[in-house]
Amino acid sequence: MQATLLHGERDIRLEEVPDPKLSSGIDAIVRVTASCVCGSDLWGYRGVAPSRGPKRIGHEFMGVVESVGDRVGNVKVGDFVIAPFYDCDMTCINCRNGFSTSCLHGGWWGADDRDGGFADGGQGEFVRVPHADGSLTVVPGGTPDAALVPHLLTLADVMGTGHHAALSAGVREGSTVVVVGDGAVGLCGVIAAKRLGASRIVAMSRHASRQALARTFGATDIVEERGRDGIERIRELFDGIGPDSVLECVGTEESMNQALRSARPGGQVGFVGVPHQAPTLPLRRMFDTNVGVRGGVAPVRNYIDELLPDVLSGAIQPGLVFDLELPLSEVAEAYAAMDERRAVKVLLRP
Amino acid sequence: MQATLLHGERDIRLEEVPDPKLSSGIDAIVRVTASCVCGSDLWGYRGVAPSRGPKRIGHEFMGVVESVGDRVGNVKVGDFVIAPFYDCDMTCINCRNGFSTSCLHGGWWGADDRDGGFADGGQGEFVRVPHADGSLTVVPGGTPDAALVPHLLTLADVMGTGHHAALSAGVREGSTVVVVGDGAVGLCGVIAAKRLGASRIVAMSRHASRQALARTFGATDIVEERGRDGIERIRELFDGIGPDSVLECVGTEESMNQALRSARPGGQVGFVGVPHQAPTLPLRRMFDTNVGVRGGVAPVRNYIDELLPDVLSGAIQPGLVFDLELPLSEVAEAYAAMDERRAVKVLLRP
What we know:
The structure is a homodimer. Chain A is of the alpha/beta class.
């Protein structure tokens, strides 16, 4: 089959790899009908997170079940399924606690899981899913309308991750919210905050098209300033003290600093931006202001059951974050478009 | 009047200072009937947090109202009152949000408040309270029984601070909890966790007397190990993954590290130990495990109304953390006893 490999800095290739095979009895093979490129894929692509040798890549996909192991019970051949951006069994204690990204048996796409079985990357024709019953969610009603596909695909990562940012930031009915980051996750964070009942949502963005999308998703205000000026502007908007909740959806030291200093005393930062360069948090500042920090790698599998009905009904339309669609054969161009910020997020079809 | 001053490292003196005077119309003078020494007072005493010149000290006190400004409405001459470990107005937006330690007008005992009026230290004969209506809580029923005084006095700081640690750590009905730190605050953290319905509470302590008190307060298990061994032991006790909530009640880098590594994936650290030496938190570890960190300088004034009835009824007995009582004239010995760990916490009477 064809699958995407990262060979090195800005070197992405679609190549022939071995077809996946069932091997454990609890696995499944999925034929990928849609996948996409994640902002976090760009870290490796840009050489910021160096990786050794060619590496399978892609962790957001959906598709049709081609075959299942003999002990798989929740999914069957022909089902249309969504996978989260990782593999998990949904039966271990961490999965049951709501944190399936800490599954004791699962792992990451494009790598061996904790039980030693290989999971293919998502940007390819087929994927072996090691824990089929845990990882895969069947979309009711069979193959969905083409128009629904982008929205469903966000449940694999960005919509669930935005939801995790909002939950981690303690967003509830009536909360005042600031979202740092106007990428796909930040924009989904706006949707999530609105969905959870936030009374006011500020999107920090300097890009007209992203500002417009943020407003479509429920942002009530836009702030273009950054750094000290941005914090000052945010304070002015919220009684001179700042908002209840800040969603940090970037992952740089600068953006976390922005988030931490924007929240009101006793407020909360929910963070989902993958932190790079081993950043740290200033504990003394947190102590003095009682601003909490919580978040991390989002357990999106635990959120799919809650979010899927809202996607199917059209109540939320997170798929609008996709602004480019390409065939898998042009995966290299998909990366380049996102790297050069010509696209927010690219959807790939076979 | 007589008041306590910190002159330098291990140099505490009771000296004659000017009697406080009403000056703002919203202030009160309180005759102190009981005060105490805080673990955080020891940082200055030990020279870890150096201070310039003689400095008034003491921030936990209760007493009888001697006089009030003409615009004070909530307290009157003769009332028996408890003060929190800081001054606050309870009307500004931060106070109303539940974070009176970030009061826009209040300040700290032994220093000028944000409006420029001096607040005496608590370890003295009298204290001028700048925001009397906000800071002071009247104990119903007039002068309390002597036996109740230690318990009431903990509402000025340690009991409210332990409660804040537990709330910040997300403790609720059925939570599994570890408390790092067996000082007065840690022990009050055990009380708070029990009161909030924790199903299992581990106290980390190496001192037989503190272990016994922790058990009296509701600890179900004691762990003596620290560092890597301590984390290992805690994991064993909680399904191999750790507890839901960890209360960090020390304030060193070592204790925070212990706390952060002990919590289960998706768990929460509530921290109230005053952080020294500008420690930082490893954001990447928090990201990978989804362990949140929240806490800080405890808004105990916001908690007094909730905790006072349980103290008055005897449902909780936090005053048991006092294991030495001295006259104010022996304040230097009080500090020495705590510094040398001969006492957990010392109560001072006039």
